[in-house]
Amino acid sequence: MKKTLLTLALAGIVLTANSCKKNESSEVKIDFTQSYEDAALALSTAQKNYEAALATNDPVKIEAAKKELQAAQEKYVQSKNAYVAEGGTVKTEYENYLTASTQVLGATASEAISNVVKGSDSIISGKVTTAVENKTAEVKNKLNAEKAKISEETKKTMADVKASADKTKEDFKKSADETKKTANEEIDKAKKSLNNLLGK
Fold first, then answer.
1. 23-65 pLDDT tens trace
2. CA gyration radius for the chain?
3. Quick check: 76 and 102 in contact, CB under 8 A?
4. How far is 59 from 55, CA to CA, in rounded Å?
């Protein structure tokens, strides 16, 4: 009797342990699913925060948001791998978050611009593009202003040279007129003297 009771108690313990194991297994699966969902949400939020930081043009905020996005990306990848290992199915929407964040974190400014030109849907890349375009416009405006300044200085120099040449020409003409007048006066004097000599 005692042996039978002991056997039944042992069987009960084994069944209870197996039942707990099954419950733990299903709870773990739920936890993995929740972890995956939370990580995807955190990744999406981190992307929005990075976009907002870019809009401020504050290097400190941008760097902090970038680190947050990197950490969220790593957490998402870890959660996804665990979720898939437990038999979960990856959601395309969440993978798009990962793809966008990878492009943003791995791209240089020129690559980000290229992505936008190719029709990238990444808002963050668009913000990078805007910042670069603004800088390009600023440099272009400075170059145009410098070009206009040089052009004005060149025109002024040319005007000064022309004015100087006109003055030299005028002075030369005046000098030639005076020389001619003096020469005519001398000729007239010589004619008078000659006439006087000839008795005319």
1. 554 454 457 889 999 999 999 999 999 989 989 999 999 999 9
2. 46
3. no
4. 11
